[in-house]
């Protein structure tokens, strides 16, 4: 009996406690809801105030815009007229260059355009060309000098364009090339000025001056691969002095750091193949692959240059387009030599990616120059290589 009474009392207490807890929770929830409502009301008020402020600002801006619109329209109209005039003048000059303009461009047109476009080297250069076409070299020089003084100092490329044009003009028509060349060196990248002047002297077939400048360049920039390479190409292509080109290559290897030796020897071999002596170019590559047998890039360049030199027949100006596209047939000895290079290349056993490239290159070569049997032979070699890899796994 006592136990049952105690249980009943405990149950009643639990029920009372539950009721109290539920009441407290309800009160808390009500308080939270009230707080949320207050916050939302405040936010709505703030939002309305902000919207009112924004609307006031917009209204003011529209009033200001409407008041100043007439003045701005007048300004824009005047600017548009100026821009249209500049566009018309530009078109006139361009059409005059292309020979499509019925009206001749006059100095007045250039002067008018340069008022607003004083920093554009293209306009100055076309102005210089205008006087050169008229045969007035002195006036062309005056325009070049004006351009150098007028163009802003920080526009280095625009000024460089004027200097390059000035060098071209003096090389082709004038006699002040050395003076302009020295001035250009003072304010521009010296190496780029040397390289540009070499090209201009080559174009104008001033070979003595070209050789002097190249000799001066390799002394001044003895650590520059570009200058040595350019001189080597000029000796093969323009000056036609193979023996001296070989001496210059040896000098370059003494002057340049060792990391640049490989590139300059490859370039020298390329020039030998292209312009002079295929056998000497071949010897250069053979020495390189003996020294760097694991360099796949050397092997690939050797193959490309050697195959191109044999397959591309010399093109004459009188040849038709079909004749120029024709690939020269190779002799058995030439084919065997190229296949021998591929065999040696494969024997080194590079990574699978490189080996795949070698097989695809060889197969393409056989498709162009070989027979069905030689193609099958390459495919079999590729299959055997894949089988050897599977055996290792």
Automatic annotation (TrEMBL):
<dbReference type="GO" id="GO:0003723">
    <property type="term" value="F:RNA binding"/>
</dbReference>
<dbReference type="GO" id="GO:0032040">
    <property type="term" value="C:small-subunit processome"/>
</dbReference>
<dbReference type="GO" id="GO:0006364">
    <property type="term" value="P:rRNA processing"/>
</dbReference>
<keyword id="KW-0698">rRNA processing</keyword>
<dbReference type="InterPro" id="IPR003107">
    <property type="entry name" value="HAT"/>
</dbReference>
<feature type="compositionally biased region" description="Basic and acidic residues">
    <location>
        <begin position="40"/>
        <end position="55"/>
    </location>
</feature>
<feature type="compositionally biased region" description="Basic residues">
    <location>
        <begin position="1"/>
        <end position="39"/>
    </location>
</feature>
<dbReference type="InterPro" id="IPR045209">
    <property type="entry name" value="Rrp5"/>
</dbReference>
<feature type="region of interest" description="Disordered">
    <location>
        <begin position="1"/>
        <end position="80"/>
    </location>
</feature>
<dbReference type="InterPro" id="IPR011990">
    <property type="entry name" value="TPR-like_helical_dom_sf"/>
</dbReference>
<protein>
    <submittedName>
        <fullName>rRNA biogenesis protein RRP5, putative</fullName>
    </submittedName>
</protein>
<feature type="compositionally biased region" description="Acidic residues">
    <location>
        <begin position="70"/>
        <end position="80"/>
    </location>
</feature>
